[in-house]
Write a structure and sequence with these properties.
By secondary structure, this protein is α+β, with helices and mostly antiparallel strands. It is 33% helix and 22% strand. The chain contains eleven helices and 21 strands. The chain has helices at 13-25, 44-47, 63-81, 101-113, 123-129, 150-163, 192-198, 274-289, 295-303, 308-315, 369-388, and strands spanning 6-9, 31-35, 51-52, 86-87, 91-94, 119-122, 138-142, 146-148, 167-170, 183-186, 205-212, 215-217, 227-230, 242-245, 251-254, 258-259, 327-330, 334-341, 346-347, 352-355, 359-364. Strands 9-2-1-10-21-20 form a six-stranded mixed beta sheet, with helices on both faces. Strand 1, helix 1 (13-25) and strand 2 (31-35) form a beta-alpha-beta unit. Helix 1 (13-25) runs parallel beside helix 6 (150-163), helix 1 packs across helix 11 (369-388) and helix 3 (63-81) crosses helix 11. It is globular. It starts with 5 loop residues before the first strand and ends with a helix. The model has no long low-confidence stretch (mean pLDDT 95).
Length: 389
């Protein structure tokens, strides 16, 4: 298998889904999936929120809107088929004051344009859905938003890939020139830009890592009935501190979006690499001086969320009786591989692929990449097929 027809680099949910889509499309082809960790999905794919999003945050002309809408249906169906528990709890998007009401209307318009079910609700109707919710005059309810365990999903997908004849090589990092593959698909997440440069791509893009952490509630199961989100700032790809009801009916608040100083900086000096530290520090220092998305303000606001009282206070704007003593347990951190356009100095908000007849590079599989993984993988294979013609 050092000469596979297809070599897929990266065993996250996107990489596994692409490998499966390739095998489904080209059944006689050999597919090798390369994963540097001892199991698939140990980075972002197994550390995400577990929310199966509905697809109304994004303009209907974006890839993200289409893939989230379709991915919601396909991922939910996959969970049902595999008997993976799904909490169909829905989501309320709430306004904190009158100035945020137009954005609720904009989200409703985007949902309608993308064919997503949404229900505008009054303040009283919102409280009937979630008695503890706080909102100004009205809110937006998404009945098709749900939660599942991302680790169970990736474990099932990994097992399916093996059953389908895909060779999975774990504990094997990508090294240039080690494989003579017919076609290379780069789905390496935090290292996608580096691998892409080996093939002459990602010239204007670099990965910028952001650390996300949740605080878990000690309140009893069922203390919250639905996810509660604030109106987002659509200038950046982060949705703000919110309540997530996990698949077992408990609540967590977060996440943070704190700039990390190297790509796998989960805790303290974990996975420290001096070269990465210098590169990321250089990028972040430059963005502090000038950016197109308010990086300095974002970074300062996010760094404050290292404070547990601050994070709890932000969550308390969305719901009643949110007490610091109920939120003492931090979850495992995750790192978002966020693509930065180094020429325009802005964060990329949509999926980005670059490739040719020899390789395809998933440079930006930005949140909600987990929700989008199945239809996005089919899209990647379409692009590969078109490039090979």
């Amino acid at each position: 298998m050092n000469k596979p027809d297809f070599l897929v680099v990266g065993g996250g949910v996107v990489g596994v889904s692409i490998a499966r889509a390739l095998k489904a499309r080209f059944s006689d082809a050999s597919v090798l999936l390369l994963e540097k960790e001892p199991a698939c999905g140990l980075h972002a794919s197994g550390r995400n929120s577990g929310v199966i999003h509905a697809g109304f945050y994004y303009t209907a002309d974006s890839l993200k809107a289409k893939f989230t809408r379709d991915g919601n249906r396909l991922l939910t169906a996959y969970c049902d088929t595999k008997k993976i528990p799904v909490n169909r709890c829905g989501k309320l998007v709430v306004a904190q004051n009158a100035s945020e009401l137009p954005m609720l209307d904009e989200l409703a318009r985007r949902g309608a344009a993308n064919g997503v079910r949404l229900q505008p609700v009054s303040e009283e109707e919102a409280r009937a859905i979630e008695p503890r919710v706080k909102t100004h005059e009205r809110a937006l309810f998404s009945p098709d938003t749900s939660t599942a365990d991302p680790r169970l999903v990736i474990q099932n997908m990994e097992a399916d890939a093996a059953d389908e004849g895909i060779q999975i090589r774990r504990g094997a990092a990508y090294r240039r020139g080690e494989f003579d593959a017919g076609y290379v698909v780069n789905a390496a997440g935090l290292y996608a830009d580096r691998i892409a440069r080996d093939f002459g791509f990602s010239e204007r893009y670099r990965i910028l890592p952001f650390k996300g952490v949740y605080l878990y509630s000690d309140e009893p199961q069922g203390s919250f009935r639905t996810n509660i989100y604030p109106v987002p700032d659509l200038r950046n790809p982060f949705l703000g501190v919110h309540f997530t009801v996990t698949v077992d009916g408990r609540a967590k608040i977060g996440p943070t979006a704190i700039p990390a100083f190297w790509r796998e900086q989960y805790r303290a000096f974990d996975n420290f690499r001096f070269g990465e530290f210098i590169e990321v520090l250089f990028r972040e220092a430059g963005l502090m001086l000038s950016s197109n998305f308010g990086f300095k303000q974002l970074a300062l606001e996010e760094l404050q969320k290292y404070s547990r009282p601050r994070l709890v206070a932000l969550a308390g704007r969305l719901a009643k009786d949110v007490r610091p003593e109920s939120y003492k347990r931090w979850g495992a951190p995750g790192i978002r591989a966020q693509l930065l356009d180094i020429k325009s100095r802005k964060l990329e908000m949509d999926f980005i692929l670059e490739g040719d007849e020899k390789s395809m590079h998933v440079l930006n599989a930005v949140s909600p990449g987990w929700t989008c993984s199945i239809p996005f993988a089919a899209h990647v294979v379409d692009k590969i097929e078109a490039a090979a013609r």
